Amino acid sequence: MLNSMSGRRKRTILLLLSIFIFFTWYFTVKKSNDSEVLKQQKFIPKDSINFILSSHEKNLLSLQNDKDEISIHGNHLRLYSHVHSAILNNSYSNNIQLSHLAGVVDYKLFPWIMPKYSSTAELHQSYNGTGIVLCVNNGYTLLALTTMKMIRQNLKSNLPFEIFYVGDDDLSVKNRKLLEEIPFVTTKDITKIFNNPILKIEGWAIKPFALLASSFRHAMLMDADVVFLQSPEKLFNLDLYKKFGAFFFHDRSLFTSSDTTQQWVKDLVGEMTPTMKNLRLFNEKTGHEMESGVVVIDKLKNFVGLIAVCSLNSIPFRSQSYVHFHGDKETFWTGFESVRAPYSFNTNLPGVAGTGSMKDENFSICGMQLLHVDEQKRPLWINGGITKSKYDPESLIADLHEWASGISTFF
To answer: How far apart are CA 82 and CA 52, in angstroms?
Structure first.
């Protein structure tokens, strides 16, 4: 009996020791991997750091320029990119001049992160895990419930959801409780995270701020009327996402952009990159380059790009960008371009799902739902819900039997 108890005690001790070793290894490797990502995206040559420090007074003087000219804002964003990266580099984190400049840049460009966060560096290093971000108000609650239940029940995905809203009037307590009945769903008031008296968030503008405020490192921003046809986890495993840390989807080809809009973007970004030169918008193929129904970003790797996007959706630049573009959607790639952050687009153009018909030997598809396909050109997700009208709760289910992808023009 004593030998038996002694044997069981030894096995228990060995089991506990094995568990302890495993978790010690896991969290050590995880911390090491996260640190490696920060090293990769924050490395700046020593001569660049010295240039920033030698231009310290000049940079401070530049930041005192309160004009809302987009070219000046673009220069400020690029200055922020260099300073923020240097602050995250342990070799320079204790430099008094650099710390002072970083504080001034944060306060000048992103005062709305305070008082919850003392610096953008603190916010940058707060992320962990993988999940989906939605922005939902009372009018979109039913759509959000539908799409989340489809992801849970039909696609068998347990990715957590964080749902953002703008104050109690935007999303009622009753609707919040309905949404939180779905497992792994959390609702968050964006005005409790960022300083809304400064931001005055409304409409589309909440989307990039919700993405920035979410706790996830690997975050997927998703509209409430998006319907996934494959598991959303697929997007986090794409080679393009792993390489660039940001994955975007093209919008339909519609109209062309004006010379004024193109010049506004060029003024923001300074020098056009090869990626930007190849976009359809600059080649007279469309006035709508991107749609933001689904946006996937590694925020540890691409924090600077995302916060630049947020700046274009803040006052006073929101009024400028929304004149040139239809809401927030084009501010994602333009924001990334402004700070030279890496990003990628789906290699396939969008299509349409709806009802097919033949006329004069031509086959056409009529539908309101914009369809996106995966790398094998299989239906991945649609934007616009599953009813004939997403604005009418009594609307019938749409006929989505036919679909086509890679359509260059929509009428």
So the answer is: 8
